[in-house]
Amino acid sequence: MARVIVDVVLKDEILDPQGDAISRALPRMGFSFTPTAVRQGKSFILSLDHAPSASELKEIENAAATLLSNPVIETFTIRVEN
Amino acid sequence: MARVIVDVVLKDEILDPQGDAISRALPRMGFSFTPTAVRQGKSFILSLDHAPSASELKEIENAAATLLSNPVIETFTIRVEN
What we know:
The structure is a homodimer.
Chain A: E1 2-10, H1 17-28, E2 37-48, H2 54-68, E3 74-81
């Protein structure tokens, strides 16, 4: 059993109103830590019954670029957990 | 500069229609790898200008449980990147 996780985040130059809203909500809710920025992202967890081969990882990268993210405004990273 | 990342995912017993839709879309789009399951999650990236202290991590854990996730249907994990 392996899990391939695709993390999708907005590019730095794209405004993130949800992240900003969380940033403003934290002090209002009584939290004292003050992050310099909050960004919200998406993650996709693909479970596989075997460790992914190099060609499967290549395909997953293609799927991440075409199906799971919008390359105009988002970037993605892929990590594998065994 | 450190980043604390809160990953929020639906509990295993909660249906995930978006994940299922992605699962079904993959073969239709010509991808040949077949995950046993696809789950969609959210992530929150908190940027800090210093490495988080133990008490800050405790506060972030509280924020994750109350503001960033719905504990009825979701679980979360926290990871720190320096």
